[in-house]
Amino acid sequence: MEPLDEQLVEQIDQYIEGLFTPADASLAENLKDADAAGLPAINVSPNQGKLLYLLAKIAGAKRILEIGTLGGYSTTWLARALPASGVLITLELEAGHAQVARRSLDRAGLGPMVDIRVGPAKDSLWNLIRLGGEPFDLIFIDADKAGYVGYLELSLQLSHPGTIILADNVIRHGLVLADNSPDSADRGARAYNDAIAHHPRLESLILPIVRRRVDGLAISIVR
Ligand code: SAH
Ligand code: DHB
Ligand code: MG
User: Fold this and answer.
1) Residues 26-33: what's their mean pLDDT?
2) Strand, helix or coil at 63?
3) CA angle, corner 141, sides to 209 and 173, nearest 5?
4) 84 Cα–ligand 1 center, Å
5) Using an 8 Å Cβ cutoff, are 116 and 141 in contact?
6) Ligand 2: residues within 6 Å at CB?
7) What is the DSSP letter of 175?
8) In which element (H, E) is residue 204 found?
């Protein structure tokens, strides 16, 4: 088998970025602040941010839930897809990450539509379920991979027929192909893929996502 030409793959990603994801002052400032605050650079790529934005627009999403805020990079893309009356709730374990996101979203003028909840996502999801608010139109799962299957089940309780459920990093450069990885993140992503493949309430596919390496975005729609 030919090895993947990582340089070519990166050049293609940059070519697409040059066409459809032009440099953007708020997003650049967001990444600069996240870096200065010592956050890991594990945000989605510009092209994947654009994909999240497009999917939210295609879905006509008015209420978005994100699990895993980090510094608010993907949050910014998703919030930009909302109408003025839209709402985005984003869940983050680390107060320091949430603080970077808060400042950046406020500065970008997106503050009023974004509610950041600090704490373990599982607890925040149960609180949302208990309060019984309106369901979400789009849910983006991107926190700890070992928690993905649990987040899926809780997300379904916050969904309506037609809700789009997305999950990042479900291919992990192919590490999910093995069914016995020693890494709990690989096992968590693989378990998520099996769960959506067989779930009676979901229709799904994984879209491979390339940047420097191959990863994937799981896309599901609730029946
Ligand atoms: N969506 C972001 C990247 C998220 S990185 C973007 O693309 O810009 C994953 C985030 O999940 C990290 O900030 C991490 O602190 C958070 N996280 C990890 N475990 C968590 C948990 N149990 N509950 C909530 N957030 C968690
Ligand atoms: C990691 C997490 C992510 O959400 C991501 O997109 C890339 C890497 C990580 O935990 O290493
Ligand atoms: Mg991710």
Assistant:
1) 98
2) strand
3) 30
4) 26
5) no
6) 42, 142, 168-169
7) G
8) strand 202-210
User: What secondary structure, in 3-state letters, does 138-149 show?
Assistant: EEEECCCHHHHH
Beta bridge partners of 208: 216
**pLDDT score of 157:** 98
Residue 173 CA: which ligand is closest? Answer: 2
Residue nearest to atom 2 of ligand 2 (CA): 42
pLDDT, tens digit, for every residue of 152-182? 999 999 999 999 999 999 999 999 999 999 9
Among the bound ligands, name the one nearest to the CA of residue 148.
Answer: 1
Which residues fall within 8 angstroms of residue 23, CB to CB, at 6 or more apart?
none
Q: Which atom of ligand 1 is nearest to the CA of 71?
A: 8
Q: What share of the chain is helix, strand, coil (3-state, %, to 5)?
A: 50, 20, 30
Among 70, 169, 172, 209, which is best to mutate for testing ligand 2, by the most ligand atoms less than 8 A from CB? 169
Identify the CA nearest to 108 among candidates 13, 44, 30: 30
How many other β-carbons are positioned within 10 Å of the β-carbon of residue 164? 20
| pTM, two decimal places | 0.98
Q: Whose CA is nearest to atom 19 of ligand 1?
A: 144
Any idea what the Cα angle at residue 70 is, between residues 66 and 71, rounded to 5°? 110
Specify the DSSP class assigned to residue 2: P
